Amino acid sequence: MPKVKTKSSAKKRFSLTGTGKIKRKHAFKSHILTKKSTKRKHNLTKTGLVDVSDEGRVRDMLRI
Question: What's this model's pTM, rounded to 2 decimal places?
Answer without folding.
Answer: 0.80
